């Protein structure tokens, strides 16, 4: 833990001597609502990772059976994630570090929160609830990807060993329970966009409960207070979110995603799958929680690169523009088995995959360029939900990013992507409630009816298929596979899928290793831990 915070400070061994940690002395900071809000904004900023290969949605997609590595033959980082390998010792340092940076800010805030004065008691409770939500979420991100990690609950820097699984999840559950109890029950539209809400905390509690009880074979979620979170508790919270949050399913699934903005208008010639669709925009009614980005991304300031959504850059089609989709690094080529698994007439397929076998796509047939920049494990299929969207604003053949066109910023393809990372959608709340509660058929039908599919009798098999297709390429599949015990079967089934590497026909090859379902800890953090921190099993 100390190593992470030393990196954050840039002060090396002198870090422990720094009182002026946030450019204000802790003895005179946290005096009022403004100070608390500054600290919260700092914590929210840590949700974004400065380093695309460490983006959590991308890592989760690569670990799953829905994506292959993509990228170039020399992109060892993403290849390592995809193939359960560790090509260098600090592969996941940026992600690991970023979460602990957020935790440290929140620990300091919560330690001093009572000294802040507020005119509005409701605003005070909301801010405290956001702090607890964020700390719980940061620890859940660490626990999902790394398993057992140090559990640091103070702003005093220490070399800490790993906490047990039960200790970590008890802390996560306790933080989320505090968030639920603290935050306002007003509908989401009454809370500033981008901030955590009571409804996001209720939904995240459902996700935490499902992963912990499923993967670890438990029936309840522990808390620090000793009163376990039961399935009935979680269902009550999920149903509360469904009934009272104001969130809802959008009428058209495509309207969730930025490509749906590309209808016939002054900017575009029209994109086939955007016709008769109106983009709902970031922060729409279906988004329960998201990581937001800005137009301030640049290379000149530490951390500012993460102000732009690097994931969109990394996952866009490799090397070539295919208007209305802009080029990127081509990470995470889509497994054709995912495309082929959608039901006939399921519109989610054409909202999820840019398919070079679809005549309505700009990548169709001979339009597609194989082997861009020595692409590896290429399938000709890309993630449409998180691909760069470009526009010919002046009609002269010069394309710029859609978000740059809307919001300005830097006119550069590496910096003009500002799309939200959607972490929890309302449809996820419905399907979690279906999996755990008594309204299973109703909630499953609601999700299917939205995309025009007929009712199917609820079963776990039907639920699994629905979750795969509803949330494909959104970073959810891998953790579903783990908690259901389906990871090994799904990953091994990817062997033998035809791919191209540097335009040479070959097949996808992978060896699943059950000892490596959690990522390796950064070796640099193990070295500075004075013997307290040990490497995860399977990576020693």
UniProtKB/TrEMBL annotation:
<dbReference type="InterPro" id="IPR012944">
    <property type="entry name" value="SusD_RagB_dom"/>
</dbReference>
<protein>
    <submittedName>
        <fullName>Putative outer membrane starch-binding protein</fullName>
    </submittedName>
</protein>
<keyword id="KW-0472">Membrane</keyword>
<comment type="similarity">
    <text>Belongs to the SusD family.</text>
</comment>
<dbReference type="InterPro" id="IPR011990">
    <property type="entry name" value="TPR-like_helical_dom_sf"/>
</dbReference>
<keyword id="KW-0732">Signal</keyword>
<dbReference type="GO" id="GO:0009279">
    <property type="term" value="C:cell outer membrane"/>
</dbReference>
<dbReference type="Pfam" id="PF07980">
    <property type="entry name" value="SusD_RagB"/>
</dbReference>
<dbReference type="InterPro" id="IPR033985">
    <property type="entry name" value="SusD-like_N"/>
</dbReference>
<feature type="domain" description="RagB/SusD">
    <location>
        <begin position="286"/>
        <end position="539"/>
    </location>
</feature>
<feature type="domain" description="SusD-like N-terminal">
    <location>
        <begin position="14"/>
        <end position="210"/>
    </location>
</feature>
<dbReference type="Pfam" id="PF14322">
    <property type="entry name" value="SusD-like_3"/>
</dbReference>
<keyword id="KW-0998">Cell outer membrane</keyword>
